Each structure stands twice: as C-alpha cells, then as structure tokens.
Amino acid sequence: MSADTDFPGLGPFSWCEETSAWYGEVDLRPGQRIVIVVEYEPGELSELDTLRRAYRILLGLPPRVEDYRRWTVDDLGIEAILPGLTTGAVFDYLSLSSLCVNSDGTAALEWEHPDIYHGVVTSLGRKGEFLRAELGG
Hints:
Number of strands: 8
Strand content: 35-45%
Strand order of the largest sheet: 1-2-3-4-5-6-7-8
Largest sheet: 8 strands, mixed
Number of domains: 1
Distance between the termini: 30 Å
Order of helices and strands: EEEEHHHHEEEE
C-alpha cells in the first residue's frame, strides 16, 4: 500500500500501516518544530492529493496560530477546569506541538503546556475554521 515518502515542502514522512498515516516533522517557523500526522483513507483522494491537502493546511497555519491559540484558551474555560491557572497564563505558555490532518479534510492541533499534563486539542473544520477545543486524553 503506502510507503515512506519525501514530499516537497513537508519533508520526509514515515508510513505506519497500523494507523494508516504518515508521520513527519516540519519547521512551522524558525525555532518551532512540530510533528505532522497525515491520515490516509484509500479511495477518497490519491496519496499525492492527500499530501497536497496537508501541505495547503500547513501553509495556512502560521498566520493563524495565535488566533487558534486564543480561541482554544477561550473555548476551554480553563479557569473552571484548572483552578489557579488564569486564561492569560495558559495563553502565554500554550505551545503548538503537532498537526494532524484527518482523512476527511478536517484537522486537529495539539498543544503543550507545562501545567496541563494531558494536552489540549483544537479541532478545525475543512476550511480551517475553529470547531472546538478540549483537554486531551
């Protein structure tokens, strides 16, 4: 089926048969490296088109990271979930760690924070619109 690949603009990806996804790392901007996961479902799009879609999503990400981060913090209502942490403290230290491009064209951003051990996930629609934020599992 699929195989490891080196896609222009994304770099090298390793294929995982068990999860039907490619895994790689990219520089979102200088000094910020993130993991990227691209799920693949045979029949919906070709492998090449699936990777092209991931590339388009990645290209649109840097100018919107701060907006996604703000929406995520606001949507979580973090002060109610983690007493003692303010929205500002979460916003200041929330760092994007990965992008998962789902086979249906939606995406998920995973964030890290030193005081939130289970992670934070932001779900995005097919056009990059913010859908919801939740604490990871």
